[in-house]
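We close this part of the discussion by returning to an individual protein. The amino acid sequence and the backbone structure tokens for this protein are reproduced below:
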Amino acid sequence: MHTGATNYYDGKWQPSLSGKTLDSINPANSDRVLGTYARSETADVEAAAQSAANAYHSWRLTPAPKRGTVIFRMGQLLEAHKEQLAQQMTAEMGKVIVEARGDVQEAIDMAYYIAAFGRMPNGHIAPSEREDIFCMAQRVPVGVVGLITPWNFPIAIPSWKMFPALIAGNTIVFKPAEDTPGLAVSFVELLIEAGIPSGVVNLVTGNGNEAGAALVESKSVSTISFTGSTEVGRHIASRCGQMMKRVSCELGGKNAIVVLDDANLELAIKGALWSAFGTAGQRCTAASRVIVQRGVKKRFTVELVERTRALKLGSGADASIEIGPVVNQAQLLRIDRYVEIGKTEGAQVLTGGSILKDGDLAKGYFYAPTVFDSMEIGMRIAQEEIFGPVTGIIEVESLEEALSAANSTAYGLSLSLYTRDVNNAFRAMRDLEAGIVYINLPTSGAEIQLPFGGMKQTGNGHREAGIMAMDYCTEWKSIYVNFSDSEELVRAQIDTIG
């Protein structure tokens, strides 16, 4: 581990040019410092961007199957180091071990999936309206791509962004979240072992308002891919628009599970628990609203509260733990403020609703899993992303009211409906305003072979993963070839009929 010298560019590990550092803290025990890492500023980012720019020409000319081979080797290395990375993730951001293994597995899956793109068609051929003219369109790389990734999926999300950009022929400047620099270092170490050439992938660790902002502003970076809060995403999209820079933003969510009277209630309760409290609610796909039809609301509520109270909290390294800590003190206090807002608005806390300070939890950032009742769609807690282990129950009369409630926020990432009625299911599939719709499944759990992303203020329309994975980091080039060997000028858009 290159503690201290944690920037990587020009094929070398090096400290920040200012000498500034930041610490990575174990959120389950804030007394434990896991490592000290470079706190990068503009000069560091510019050095990394120049390194990427210098490597771009040779990497884009490397045949795509050879680029795919590097990514395939990365998948093998991730597989070989899966448990090590999962344990490191549990220590650095608090995710329980079974979820941490799943995080790494997503990156493994993405590596193998994207590696195959190196031998897949890279465009399409279309017939010309003119004789002896060949027409085709192909994807071409955009240049240097800047990646700004969050802490909640610190291995999976970098893979979603990086592997498609690399297979397309782009070079990378990678700025991970300041809460998970150690995992970013480990990720890049494996890429180096996989054979990524010098300068193709460059790493700068540091704070968002320093290193992240500098990456957005860098003239050497042609495209930014950002996952994070809507507030920061709006600023990044605005700056990129002013600079005519391509930008992909995957932002917040206010997801919901709809439970109808005819639902498999046991399945719906399990889905609500996982969606609300998995990763301590720190997912953009977390279900912080549960919309329940009146006929099953009482039974559902009793069961959900009982099972929420039984959830076991603690350090995620313990395999018996179901809920780990939230990532840092600021996040802990933010969640608590939202719970107080909910109380003020008239929602009723049925369980949870407090920071946990007793016993083994005292030194960590633990929040009691919280269920609100009497949540109404106009409340702030029903409209704003909390990003913690908090959910609320909204009672509805009908399918129509349920779908309206589900669609009632500014976000549109992930929505779910539980029903045994195929007609209700298909109406929900048609009418729910979300980039991801689940029927009889929780709101969390996307697969890498389908596009991931949302509608409305969840982002700016780009998708990650699936066959659209390279849309954000490629341009389309149309090519026409005249093979007639004639001296006659051939023109397009000229009326030759009649």
Summary: The two ends are 74 Å apart (CA to CA). Residues 350 and 371 are 6 Å apart (CA to CA). The domain at 255-439 is CATH 3.40.309.10 (Aldehyde Dehydrogenase; Chain A, domain 2). The chain has a mean pLDDT of 96.
